[in-house]
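ARCHIVE CARD
CATEGORY: sequence design from structure
SOURCE FIELD: tokenized fold
FIELD CONTENT:
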């Protein structure tokens, strides 16, 4: 009996000593890694000794130890980011900037300059057969005196694919008379008379017949603009839009562009016609204007050759190519003179080798009613330093020729940097 009492006492004493001993937690061999963007921090958990090659980490939610209660609890899984709304899944965004350095070459009273010619945003959306295109542009100052301000819409239209390879655009979009454009910033005589890079308000139906790889294909445009867009890069008094209250209205344009593939070469012929009304011209009222253009583009490998002729019948301005003079104390005002019968010529080409493109273009404006001609010659080199950045250097020789002689309009070296997303 005494022996049994002594054994029970020894057992109770041993149990009491075990319960009274301090708790000891197993520690990881190394400190837990700090939190990163890809792996948020988790509390350390007791781990058994690891073999020489670590076992793969378990897959599942992170866990932590509640030391107060000694219970292992699961954290809720991270919440997935909400998906984009369905209407945003067809939207693409872009941006760009065009930086311009101008260096005149022996031009009286001209100064060199550097400026942001424009910066822009590009917003495009496509939802089934429907689309949207917006291109706002902005700069520090007004691009031309007749612009409303330093911010404008270059293009803004809604579109619909009305049939296979046929699209309808409604809003502000470019007119398509003659060759659209090529590798150049400074441009040609035509663009300064408002004949190229001219966005207007109305509707465009455009499409193609055949595929680009076919031996023969056709691209076509049918356009009607209720009123001009008032934001082309024509110079003051060289297009209707530069006169206060004057506009180009009821502008209808048609263009056909068949393309023939001859092995590695392609030959594209273009035929364009246009009718418009120039309204509100000072002293002239409303004028009916007709234009027609024919063009040829040949592409073989890295070589492109192009040419265009364009004719205009009808007044679109009143003070160009001969500007008027204001009255003085000793002389009466002299009105300007315009021409209703004008011919334009553009010839040139370019060759691309790798990231470098060499360009040469000559353009002519012949204002037949007043015997004035303008010639512009522009050799250039373009270098693409990346898919998103390119530099273009252009030499410009621009002259005015009359029966009285030749005068200089501009002689300059121009460098532009075009960067875009």
């Amino acid at each position: 009996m005494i022996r049994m009492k002594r054994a029970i006492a020894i057992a109770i004493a041993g149990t009491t000593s075990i319960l009274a001993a301090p708790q000891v937690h197993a520690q990881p061999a190394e400190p837990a890694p700090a939190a990163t963007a890809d792996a948020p921090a988790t509390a350390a958990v007791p781990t058994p000794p690891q073999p020489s090659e670590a076992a793969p980490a378990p897959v599942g939610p992170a866990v932590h130890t509640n030391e107060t209660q000694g219970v292992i609890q699961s954290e809720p899984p991270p919440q997935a980011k909400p998906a984009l709304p369905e209407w945003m899944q067809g939207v693409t965004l872009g941006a760009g900037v065009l930086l311009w350095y101008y260096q005149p070459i022996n031009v009286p009273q001209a100064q060199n300059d550097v400026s942001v010619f424009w910066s822009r945003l590009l917003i495009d959306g496509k939802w089934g057969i429907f689309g949207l295109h917006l291109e706002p542009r902005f700069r520090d100052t007004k691009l031309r005196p007749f612009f409303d301000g330093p911010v404008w819409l270059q293009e803004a239209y809604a579109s619909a694919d009305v049939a296979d390879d046929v699209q309808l655009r409604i809003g502000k979009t470019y007119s398509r008379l003659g060759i659209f454009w090529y590798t150049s910033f400074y441009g040609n005589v035509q663009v300064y008379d408002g004949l190229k890079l001219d966005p207007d308000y109305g509707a465009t139906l455009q499409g193609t017949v055949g595929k680009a790889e076919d031996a023969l294909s056709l691209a076509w445009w049918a356009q009607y603009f209720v009123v001009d867009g008032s934001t082309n890069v024509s110079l003051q008094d060289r297009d209707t839009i530069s006169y206060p209250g004057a506009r180009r209205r009821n502008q209808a344009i048609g263009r056909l562009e068949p393309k023939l593939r001859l092995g590695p070469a392609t030959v594209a012929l273009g035929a364009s016609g246009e009718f418009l009304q120039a309204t509100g011209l000072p002293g002239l009222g409303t004028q009916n204007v007709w234009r027609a253009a024919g063009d040829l583009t040949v592409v073989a490998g890295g070589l492109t050759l192009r040419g265009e002729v364009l004719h205009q019948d009808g007044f679109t301005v009143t003070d160009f190519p001969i500007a008027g003079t204001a009255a003085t104390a000793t002389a009466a005002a002299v009105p300007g003179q315009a021409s209703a019968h004008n011919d334009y010529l553009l010839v040139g080409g370019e060759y691309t080798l790798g990231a470098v493109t060499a360009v040469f273009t000559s353009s002519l404006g012949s204002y037949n009613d007043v015997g004035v001609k303008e010639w512009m010659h522009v050799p250039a080199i373009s270098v693409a330093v990346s898919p998103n950045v390119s530099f273009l250097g252009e030499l410009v020789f621009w002259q005015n020729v009359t029966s009285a002689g030749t005068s200089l309009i501009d002689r300059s070296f121009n460098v532009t940097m075009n960067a875009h997303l």
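CARD ANNOTATION: The helical segments are 2-20, 189-192. The domain at 89-325+333-420 is CATH 2.40.160.10 (Porin).
SHELF: design records, drawer C
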